[in-house]
UniProtKB/TrEMBL annotation:
Protein name as annotated: VOC family protein
Superkingdom to which the source organism belongs: Bacteria
Gene3D superfamilies: 2,3-Dihydroxybiphenyl 1,2-Dioxygenase, domain 1 (3.10.180.10)
VOC domain boundaries: 11-136
Amino acid sequence: MNTKLPAPIPRLTMITLGVSNMRASIAFYEALGFTRKLAASGEAVAFFETGGTALGLFPWDLLAQDVTLPQDPRPRGFRGMTLAWNCSTAEEVDAVLDFAISKGASLLKPAHATDYGGYSGYFSDPDNHPWEVVVAPGIEVGDDRRVHLPD
């Protein structure tokens, strides 16, 4: 390992989800209120502003091919990751879950008090990507829609 090279600045800039139906997934994320950017890409790829890291949608089979992993069998169970929608209050968690369900999400786990003093529930998008909707002690969401973590 060459230690003379400066370390790059670590950053997570994009989360790209493989989806089965681009049109339906684009409509779902627009219905949740995320702002689509670079819409000229049509249904080839979709990008959404999230207030921080951007969200991308890409056809499942093409994304699997791009990362050189088999696309089948598609996991129906837990995939080892979740997305999160952090909130400021328990009432906001309930409202977000209700809203997401009204836009076509599936409820995975109703909102409940957590053992760490928070409040959390889960929904899944049309391709079963799980989203946690949560208010967690010490984690704040600013007016800039960004998560602010304490030191």
